[in-house]
Structure to design on (307 residues):
């Protein structure tokens, strides 16, 4: 596995392979890799000839009060995981190379960014949209993989790629969880044993909401109340939001139709955790289909190259 640190070498490597007809898969990460990242890397490995994993802790997506300096950086472990999963390149650009003096362009996806994570973290999605677009420009992948764990982020990236004709197929893979339901996250290491014990209440709340929908409840207020009550079993948890939304626009639903996404964010002490569940009800009338984006660029909707 090659470790590439400069943007110029990264692009030269990719362009060389593209010229030979090799398909390039890409998994962008901020490092501190766990089994959630591993599942994306494996899925990419299955689908593409060459595989790039980037590790870049993007400063522009953190606010001044957030944990940029505390973000875990186990680089030896991360490289070993990438190597183990068959990555060809671990791309580790420096912040100075990503944002040289004079850098000033930022991208906005205003409607998809305005609620939920975007409301809680005002510059977050502009940072994400910009860095992902830059990374695509450097890595020139055919297929890029993202986790459903960050549902709003994945929605925004699909929109961005479609709106700007970036020519990269996007595949979103399911959330990988611990045995007790907690979604894997690089931030989970900061939870104390007591905090770790109550953290799975977030996924339990989403599952309780899902259960209500599946058993026929379409009353959004009742579903949100149940989700809240589940989390409130632990007084140490503060709820930021627990919402029933349209899976495409991410706007709150007033009545559950055929599809809904349950979005949640909580705080336990200084740690913020997010999670979501997509609920699809076969056979129910679709009230609001919104926009749905298809996989593009010669890949089918499972991310495999079309013959
Ligand atoms: P991060 O390193 O947190 O920026 O995440 C890099 C990629 O891994 C993003 O596409 C995330 O959505 C994805 N990811 C993070 N945690 C998980 C998880 N538990 N399951 C699946 N994908 C994940």
């Amino acid at each position: 596995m090659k470790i590439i640190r400069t943007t110029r070498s990264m692009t030269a490597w990719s362009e060389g392979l593209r010229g030979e007809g090799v398909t390039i898969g890409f998994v962008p990460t901020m490092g501190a890799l766990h089994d959630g990242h591993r599942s994306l890397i494996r899925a990419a490995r299955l689908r593409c000839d060459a595989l790039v994993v980037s590790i870049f802790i993007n400063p522009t997506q953190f606010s001044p009060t957030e944990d940029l300096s505390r973000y875990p950086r186990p680089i030896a472990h991360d490289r070993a995981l990438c190597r183990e999963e068959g990555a060809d390149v671990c791309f580790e650009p420096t912040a100075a190379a990503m944002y040289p003096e004079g850098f000033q362009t930022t991208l906005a996806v205003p409607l998809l960014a305005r609620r939920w994570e975007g409301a809680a973290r005002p510059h977050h999605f502009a940072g994400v949209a910009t860095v992902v677009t830059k990374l695509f420009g450097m890595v020139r992948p055919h297929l890029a993989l993202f986790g459903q764990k960050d549902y709003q982020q994945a929605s925004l990236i699909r929109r961005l790629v479609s709106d700007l004709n970036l020519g990269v197929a996007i595949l979103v893979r399911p959330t990988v969880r611990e045995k007790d339901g907690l979604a894997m996250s690089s931030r989970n290491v900061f939870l104390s044993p007591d905090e770790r014990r109550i953290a799975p209440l977030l996924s339990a709340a989403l599952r309780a909401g899902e259960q209500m929908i599946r058993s026929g409840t379409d009353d959004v207020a009742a579903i949100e109340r149940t989700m809240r009550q589940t989390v409130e079993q632990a007084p140490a948890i503060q709820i930021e939001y627990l919402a029933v939304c349209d899976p495409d626009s991410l706007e709150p639903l007033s009545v559950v139709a055929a599809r809904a996404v349950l979005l949640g964010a909580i705080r336990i002490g200084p740690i913020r955790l997010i999670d979501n569940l997509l609920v699809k009800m076969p056979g129910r009338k679709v009230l609001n289909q919104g926009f749905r984006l298809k996989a593009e660029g010669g890949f089918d909707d499972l991310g495999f190259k079309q013959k």
About this structure: The domain at 186-280 is CATH 3.30.1300.10 (Pantoate--beta-alanine Ligase; Chain: A,domain 2). The beta strands are 2-4, 24-29, 50-55, 89-91, 143-147, 169-173, 237-245, 259-268, 271-280. Residues 288-292 have pLDDT under 50 and may be disordered.
